[in-house]
Specification:
The protein has 2 helices and 17 strands. By secondary structure, the protein is α+β, with helices and mostly antiparallel strands. The chain has 3 domains: about 120 residues, Immunoglobulins (Immunoglobulin-like, Sandwich), CATH 2.60.40; about 80 residues, Immunoglobulins (Immunoglobulin-like, Sandwich), CATH 2.60.40.10; about 80 residues. Strands 1-2-10-9-4-5-6 form a 7-stranded mixed sheet, with no helix packed on it. A 4-stranded antiparallel sheet has the order 11-12-15-14, with no helix packed on it. A hairpin with an 8-residue loop joins strand 1 and strand 2. Helix 1 packs antiparallel against helix 2. It starts with a strand and ends with a helix. The N terminus is likely disordered. Keywords: Disulfide bond, Glycoprotein, Membrane, Receptor, Transmembrane, Transmembrane helix. It is a single-pass membrane protein. One of its GO terms (molecular function) is signaling receptor activity.
Length: about 300
């Protein structure tokens, strides 16, 4: 499937006795995975001496493909998916990495002619809308080309990031923060050349504030309990270390006092176990609260 952008003016330079001319060509948009045909606008007639396609990709890599009057083809770093058909160039299974400028150079008895075609490959993105870990609406358009455009209704505080994937497609993520307490539902609108019309989806924000409050509160409690456990551990091990040092410099103490020390150590170990059990119970309670507050 090919679609065409507004026409671009491309100059064709003619060498020899022929008059210079101006050729009008168009940028070409195709779907990823399709078979693409790029046409050289100049008709060489029966006097073709040499046809050259020079390819400059968006990553600045380049290659050259030549076809001479004996129909012998020479690939110079070009993909095997590219092959000439008369004066046109066919690209099988077109990929985003094939985007770039393709220049056709025809040499015949009249001179040498140049034309260029700008190729853009379209990939439809997948769209998701959900509350992220912070309870904030997040809209994502993943794996599209070109990068999608994301907007929100109603207006709010928006943060948008774009990232290029290894296959040179784009992932766009946008988060929404309400600037009014009256907002209970938001709508994400994603626009892309592959969509017949903008894609829209909505999500409720009624429970997002409570989820965020629960997470913050639980985080504070966990930090406090963790600090308490650390203090107890240092206190217990510090006391044991000090008592060990005293044993090295003092005479053996009566059997009864050694028994009391053992009981103190057992009591400290029991306290640590009790704190760990409370932390585990707290984590289970947090998980239950989060499930209850899912919209």
């Amino acid at each position: 499937m090919e679609t065409h952008l507004p026409a671009l003016v491309c100059l064709a330079f003619v060498r020899g006795n022929a008059e210079p001319s101006v050729l009008v060509t168009e940028s070409v948009r195709v779907w990823a995975g399709s078979s693409t045909v790029l046409r050289c606008r100049q008709d060489p007639g029966d006097s073709l001496l040499l046809l050259t396609w020079k390819v400059l990709l968006l990553d600045n890599s380049h290659c050259t493909l030549q076809l001479n009057w004996e129909n012998l083809t020479n690939h110079n770093n070009c993909s095997e998916r590219m092959r000439p058909e008369n004066t046109s160039l066919r690209i099988e299974n077109t990929a985003v990495t094939d985007q770039g400028t393709y220049t056709c150079e025809i040499a015949n008895s009249l001179g040498t002619f140049f034309t260029s075609v700008l190729l853009e490959v379209l990939v439809e993105p997948s769209v998701t809308l959900e509350l992220n870990k912070l309870g904030v609406p997040e809209c994502r358009a993943h794996g599209g080309n070109p990068a999608a455009n994301i907007s929100w209704i109603p207006e709010g505080s928006i943060s948008t990031n774009r990232a290029m994937e290894p296959d040179r497609s784009w992932t766009v993520s946008s988060t929404y923060t309400a600037t009014s307490s009256n907002v209970t539902q938001v709508t994400c609108i994603v626009s892309h050349p592959t969509f017949p019309q903008p894609h829209s989806s909505s999500i409720s924000t009624a429970g997002s504030g409570r989820i965020l409050w629960v997470r913050v509160t639980v985080s504070i409690i966990v930090v406090i309990m963790g600090l308490f456990l650390i203090v107890m551990l240092f206190s217990s091990y510090g006391q044991s270390w000090a008592q060990g040092c005293l044993r090295e410099v003092k005479m053996p103490e009566p059997q009864g006092e050694e028994k009391e020390e053992d009981e103190d150590e057992e009591e400290a170990e029991w306290s640590h176990t009790q704190v760990a059990a409370k932390l585990k119970a707290l984590e289970q309670r947090v998980s239950a609260l989060e499930k209850q507050n899912q919209p």
